[in-house]
Structure formats: C-alpha cells, structure tokens
From TrEMBL, chain A:
GO biological process: intracellular protein transmembrane transport; protein targeting
Topology of this chain in the membrane: Multi-pass membrane protein
Superkingdom of origin: Archaea
Record's subunit section: Part of the protein translocation apparatus. Forms a complex with SecF.
Function, as annotated: Involved in protein export.
A cellular component annotation (GO) from this entry: plasma membrane
Keyword list, A-Z: Cell membrane, Membrane, Protein transport, Translocation, Transmembrane, Transmembrane helix, Transport
Compartments, record wording: Cell membrane
Name of the molecule in the record: Protein-export membrane protein SecD
Species for this entry: Halorubrum ezzemoulense DSM 17463
Gene giving rise to this polypeptide: secD
NCBIfam families, per the entry: PRK08343.1-1
Cited Pfam families: SecD_SecF_C
Automatic annotation (TrEMBL), chain B:
Biological role: Involved in protein export.
Superkingdom of the source species: Archaea
GO BP of this protein: intracellular protein transmembrane transport; protein targeting
Name under which the protein is recorded: Protein-export membrane protein SecF
Organism: Halorubrum ezzemoulense DSM 17463
Length: 530, 294
C-alpha cells in the first residue's frame, strides 16, 4: 500500500498542489474580502477568486508621504505628553495644539501642519526647552498607523471594494502611504482622501420665541469608539453606535458634561414616548415643535438632527448614563447611517498626504483595465503555444514533449492558486512574471530531458537517477541565481516590480521543488526500458 | 514539417580571437550607443515617466483622425511628446516634470482634455523628487541583482576565468538590449527594468549549462561544448519564440508593457546566443588549453 506512494511521491505532490490551487481558485471562501454593505459575489471579479490590480481592473493608485516633521529622542524631563504638546504649540505661531503630537513610547514630538517649516519647528522645540537628537521629515509610526486606519475607514465606508492602503518604506528610509482604489477615478480618490471635516454635536433648544444652539457639546475627540453603520433590529431604520469617553485626566469627562447639557436642556421632559420627534428644520434652523434636538454638524453645516429615546433621556437626567457612555445615532436609511459613521470617524486624516510635493498618482479607466485583462490572457496563451510548438519541433516525440508542456502549465496554474490564496492582485508585471516562469520552466525541463536521454537508453532506475541528479545541479544553480537576482526587488519599494519579482521567485521555487522533480518521475516511467 | 536541429559548429576552424571578436564588437558598439545617448540626452536611455516625473495622459482615439490635432490645441502647455499606440486606439500625451505643483497640473490637464472633448482613459502623475528616488532605487536594485548573481556564480565554479565568462556574458546581454531600446525608441520604465532582470536569469541558465558541461563532466572539450549547445540552443530558441510571439501579440493588442518586455527579451536572448557560444566558448577554450597549462 505504502510502496506505490513512496515510489511516486513527487507526482503525488504535484497532484496535491494542483488540487490545492483549484480549491484556492474556485472554492468560495478564498475570494476577495467584500467591502461593508457588499455581498461576496459582488466583490468577486469574474469566475475565479483572482483579484486584479489597477492596470487590469481600472482604478487609481496614490502614493505619497505624510507631511510633517518629527523630533526624535526628545528629553521630556518628566513632563506629561499634554504639557509637552502645549508648550511646543505655544511656540508655533501657525499651529495649534491639535497639530502637535507627542508619542512618549517613541520619544518623539511631531508637528503635522504642512505650513510649519523644519526650522520653525526646531526653533519651537528649542524655545520650549526640550532637547532632541534630530528632526526628520515625516511623522511618527503612531500617526502613520492612525492615518492608515482612517483612510481604510474612508474606503470601507464609501463602499469601495478591493480598496487598500499600506505603508511602504523607500530606500532612503522615507515612509509612504500607498492607497489603491479599483474602479475609481483619480479626482474622486484624491477628494475622498483630502476631505477633512470637523465634526461636532450641538444641542438645539427652544429659547423664548426662537431657537438657540449650544455648540460643541461633543467634538470628534470626545468619542471613544464609533461603530459602523448597522441595520436596526426592529423596523426599517439603521443606526451608528457610539461611546463617549467617561474619563478625564482632570475636570469633568466628556460623557459627564454631555449628560449635564442634555439634562439641562430638558430632553427627559420633552421625550416621554416613542412618538415624540425632533422638529428641527435644517433649512430654517428653527425647531418647529418645542422639543430640543441633537445636531450633527460637519464643517459647520448641520447634516442630521436627532431626537432622543425616552429611556436614554431619562438615564441622562438621572445621571447614570455617563457610567457607560453609549448611545445610538438612529436614521431612517442605511446609506445615511453609513455617511454619519464616515463623518464621525474618518472625517480627517491625522496628517496630510503630500501628493503634489513628493507623491505620485496614476489612474486607469475600468474599460481599459478590462481590455488589458483579456489581451494579456490571449497573449499568455499564444506564448505558451509558441513554446509548445518549439518543443514539439525539437523532440518530435509526444512522450517527451507533452508532459513538458503540461508540467510548465501546471507551474503557472500553481502560481495562480498562490495569487488567489494570498489575495495578491494580478497586474501586467505579474503576468510578465508568469510568462518568465513558463520560459525558465521549459528551459529546465529541456535540460532534464536532454540529460536523461543522452548516451543511449535508460535501462535502470539507477542510471536514470544519476543522470537526473546531474541535470538537477544545473537547474538548482540557475534557480539560485534567479532567486538572488530577484530578491532585492522583492523588498525595495518599486511598485510593480516587487510583484514581478515575488512571482518569478515563487515560480522558480515551485518549479525546482515540485514540478520539475515530478517531470523527472513522469519521464522515468515513460522512458525506462523494463 | 521542419525539425529543429541544432547545428554542430566546427570550433576548431576559428581561433579564440576570431570567436571573441564578433561579440566584443557588438558590446563595444552597444556601449558606444549608450555613451552617445548620455552625451546627447544626459541619460543612458529614454527615461520613462516614472524616472523623470511629470504627467502622462492616455487619450482615447475615436478614429475620426484628427485627435492629434485636437491634442495640439487642447492643452495650454505644449506636450513634450505625443505617441500613438497602434492597435489600441490610444494616444499617449506626456508632459515633463514641472517643479510647481504637478498634482494641480494633472488636474488642469484632465480638465482641459475634457473641455476639448477628448476622453482620457488613464492619468499618471509622478513628482520629480519621487522620480529621482525611484531611479536611484531601480539602479541600486539592478546593481545588487547583478552583484548577487556574480558572487553566486563565482561561489559555484570557484575558478576565475569560467566564472568571469558567465558574468561578462551576462553584462553584455544587458548592455546590448539597452542599446537596442534606445535605437527602437523604447522607454526605460519599471516594466522594462523587469525585462532586463529577466535577462540576467535567462542568460545565466545557458552559461551555467556550458560551464558545467565543460568543467564538471568527463569528456573531451569539443564534445562537451556540443552537448551543452544541443540543450542550450533549444532552450534559448524556445524562449525567443515565446518572446517574439508575446511581442507581436502585445503590439497587435496595444499592451505596451508586454510588447516592450517581449522585444527586450528577444534581443537579449539573441545576444545571449552569440555571447555564450562565441565569447564564452573562446574564454573556456583558452582556459582549458592555455590557462590551465600555464
């Protein structure tokens, strides 16, 4: 039972790889991650689980550093991060404390306002009396991570499937944020990224004959968590769950002061039953009944008004709400809830993307991407046919040539499986890598075939094995040089080139470890004279 | 049906000098072309957008025939180059780097194209400082790749002359396609750099095969060479066929990147045939018959 498995393990391994690739390519569950509000079949591009990069699907890529300066190895002298930020901001005429970040773990102070120059920042650090090792351009790791989260949030909330954001480091050590959004034009993406709103919640309440507004009862920083839009359990509405911070370093916490403000404006008296509504008219800015309202204000404009659930209003009046600090912003439609969540969460990037200064952007229309996808498939098939034709002409023996072509195709199939498994988007450069793999793959198979068939018939396994090993030395040496030549490109940030290098190296590895030994086995079975 | 027979070359008819003269002449010619490019344009090749910075628009050609004229009048700035991609009905308009606000320029140009009734299918914008970074990274990448390959080859064979033969032939395989790119007007982009790196991989294959056959196997020199040639020439011809088909297919469909890669590799592989079986063989023969004897 075990003997045939042991004897043919190379071929069996190849079969396992092919089956594994088929699963990765076609089975549900390995497909692209759908964006929120999108189902799995919408996220899938075509019949396979493969994902396509920008040049094959259309879309926009933006790569830019975050503008700002960071002072490293700062001696804080025991001051709290807040007081350091205050002191540095006080020395900068054109920046406020919001533009100054202090990260004690990294020992860093950063300024994220683009108009602040390096020398101004140095002067401010000196004037505030904090010593530092050096000032570099760019922002801290923490701010980069946070910016990525915000951008990812923007992409998700906008329902753009396949959009991605990542950090890359250039050879000079500078960090770039790379954003890729399939199916969107350049301007749309840049607008989405640069959209920078200020968000706050105001309370509108009846005052004498008119309406008065208490501004800024909650601002963006007061929220501890902001959930994603969710469909309401009952009825047709949707909501965004939020939590307000109920702790403060000093003084009253945001949750407590919000609770006091709500209680003071008489929400509990106004909202007695579920039928009581907020009567705020966004056009006139007046309340049309006598109920106070919460207003969601983005960039100074009221975008939504909310009444309050009687239970919530009561718990605020009783002073118990701030213990948890949660509430839900409820709306009639899911799409509206999505917008609210986006406004609350991803309104602003912690630091600006410097697209015009040091960035790049490129965009390809969806129709062109689709054309390229078809074309590159056709070109790939034609190239493989050319290889097959040459191999047949040379060997004129289907026993040798046919397994050769099948083996080479298996390599590409296994690579496609890898791409689907890793969720690596296919691009033109990756396709070029595939063609390179077929080329080197067939080269190596030619070496094996010629070596094995040289010097007469193969009349024993021993003869075959010794010839096969000799052939494998050359193949191994060639594979090692290719891997060495490609490895720097896998890590350098050269955009398309890393995808090409990764797939060429993967292809060489799959070839040397799996497919080419299997071809040797197949050939042995076909050629060994019993 | 035609069969591919790898011809037996009678190397004994030629001296080492005669054999090496042809590939060396090609190498010198290629270096001269690249040198000329540096003198004339300041760069060793026609640098693409990724390495110069600027804005590139792909404008759809609606086959009315006057798109190029429209382009000449549509933009406030004079385009630095206007190229038609045959087969894809697309005109590529390039504007060189402007130090002031390339992003705004990209927006303006797109608006201007739209106002003139042109449909842009793709926009690329690269800032000059980023472009020079990319160029430096790419050069370092290719240099490391070449160096790594050389070190490995020396480690594999542990003899100076045969290893040098492999490295020299790989160098020439890189230089000749670059010169050909200049003559054919192919731009140096990240995609074509990928093709040049592929040449390193491909060309080393046949060189290693030859060295292995001559140095590590038993048998007489000419027999070893012809054995390696039978396999090596088949390999290279197969790859050339694939690349020529890819280049033709891609130019019919207008996929510029794949066409360029195909052309570069086809040229590089032809150069490799010449370098391996003329220059490399002569170096190995010298090493075998004279170098070792000394």
């Amino acid at each position: 039972m075990l003997e045939p498995i042991k004897k043919n393990w190379r071929i069996l391994l190849l079969v396992v790889v092919v089956i594994g690739s088929s699963v990765a390519l076609f089975a549900p569950g390995f497909g692209p991650e759908p964006a929120p509000g999108e189902n799995v079949s919408e996220a899938q591009q075509g019949v396979t689980n493969l994902q396509y990069g920008l040049d094959l699907a259309g879309g926009t890529r933006v790569r830019a550093p975050l503008s700002g300066y960071t002072a490293t190895d700062v001696a804080f002298g025991g001051d709290t991060p807040e007081s350091v930020a205050d002191a540095v901001a006080a020395e900068l005429d054109n920046a406020s404390v919001r533009n100054v970040g202090v990260v004690p773990e990294e020992g860093a102070v950063e300024v994220t306002k683009p108009s602040v120059t390096e020398s101004q920042f140095r002067a401010a650090m000196d004037a505030a009396g904090y010593e530092y090792a050096e000032v570099r351009s760019g922002v801290t790791q923490e701010t980069r991570d946070e910016t990525m989260n915000v951008i990812q949030g923007k992409i998700n909330e906008a329902g753009l499937s396949g959009g991605s954001v990542q950090q890359i480091q250039s050879i000079t050590g500078e960090y770039f944020i790379l954003v890729e959004v399939p199916g969107q034009g350049r301007q749309e993406v840049i607008d989405l990224l640069e959209e920078r709103g200020t968000v706050r919640i105001d309370i509108a309440y009846p005052d004498g004959n008119g309406t008065a507004v208490q501004e800024g009862t909650l601002t963006q920083g007061d929220f501890e968590t902001i959930g994603t839009a969710a469909q309401s359990d009952r009825g047709t509405g949707a909501y965004v769950p939020v939590t307000v911070r109920n702790t403060a370093e000093s003084g009253q916490s945001p949750a407590h002061s919000f609770q006091d403000a709500v209680a003071q404006r008489g929400f509990a008296d106004a909202y007695q039953t579920g039928a009581d509504r907020c009567g705020y008219n966004e056009e006139t800015g007046e309340i049309e009944n006598s109920n106070p309202c919460l207003l969601l204000v983005v960039d100074g404009e009221v975008v939504n008004s909310f009444g309050m659930d009687p239970g919530l209003a009561d718990s605020m009046a009783a002073g118990s709400w701030a213990d948890t600090g949660n509430f839900r912003l409820t709306t009639g439609e899911f799409a509206e809830a999505q917008t609210i969540s986006l406004n609350l969460r991803a309104g602003a990037l912690p630091a600006d993307l410097d697209i015009s200064g040091e960035g790049t952007s490129s965009s390809i229309s969806a129709s062109q991407g689709e054309n390229f996808r078809t074309y590159s498939l056709v070109i790939g098939v034609l190239s493989v046919l050319a290889v097959a034709g040459m191999v047949f002409l040379r060997y004129r023996e289907p026993r040798v040539a046919l397994p050769m072509i099948v083996t080479a195709l298996t390599e590409v199939y296994a690579l496609l499986g890898f791409a689907a498994l890793l969720g690596y988007p296919l691009e033109l450069a990756v396709i070029a890598g595939f063609i390179a793999v077929v080329g080197t793959g067939v080269d190596d198979l030619v070496i094996i075939a010629d070596e094995v068939m040289s010097e007469g018939d193969v009349n024993s396994k021993k003869v075959f094995d010794s010839r096969f090993r000799r052939a494998f030395w050359v193949i191994g040496a060639a594979a090692a040089t290719t891997i060495i030549a490609m490895s720097p490109l896998m890590v350098l940030s050269l955009g398309d080139l890393s995808g090409f290098a990764i797939f060429t190296v993967l292809g060489v590895l799959v070839g040397v470890l799996i497919t080419r030994p299997a071809y040797g086995d197949i050939l042995r079975r076909l050629l060994t004279v019993k | 049906m035609v069969a591919i027979e790898v011809p037996e070359v009678n190397y004994t008819d030629y001296s080492n000098r005669q054999l090496a003269a042809v590939p060396l002449a090609f190498l010198v010619l290629a270096l001269a072309i690249i040198g000329g490019w540096v003198v004339a344009t300041g760069a060793p090749a026609n640098l693409g957008l990724e390495f110069t910075g600027g804005v590139e628009l792909r404008v759809a050609d609606d086959a009315s025939g006057d798109v190029e004229q429209q382009i000449q009048t549509a933009f406030e700035r004079e385009p630095d180059s206007v190229r038609t991609i045959p087969g894809d009905d697309v005109v590529v308009v390039t504007f060189q780097a402007s130090q002031d606000d390339p992003e705004g320029l990209a927006n303006d140009l797109q608006d201007q194209a739209e106002a003139a009734g042109l449909t842009t299918t793709a926009v690329d914008q690269v800032s000059p400082s980023f472009a020079s970074d990319t160029a430096r990274t790419a050069i370092i990448g290719v240099a490391i790749a070449f160096l790594g390959m050389s070190v490995l080859v020396f480690a594999l064979f542990r003899t100076f002359v045969p290893s040098l033969a492999v490295v020299a032939s790989a160098f020439s395989d890189l230089v000749i396609p670059i010169a050909a790119m200049n003559l054919l007007g192919i731009q140096m982009t990240l995609g074509t750099i990928a093709a040049l790196l592929m040449i390193i991989g491909y060309s080393v294959d046949s060189d290693i095969l030859l060295n292995d056959s001559v140095l590590r196997r038993t048998g007489e020199f000419y027999e070893s060479v012809s054995r390696a040639m039978r396999t090596g020439v088949t390999m290279t011809l197969t790859s050339i066929a694939a690349m020529v088909v890819m280049a033709i297919g891609a130019s019919v469909f207008g996929v510029g990147l794949l066409r360029d890669i195909g052309i570069i590799l086809a040229v590089g592989l032809c150069a490799d045939l010449m370098n391996t079986y003329l220059m490399n063989v002569s170096l190995l023969r010298w090493y075998k018959f004279e170098g070792v004897a000394r």
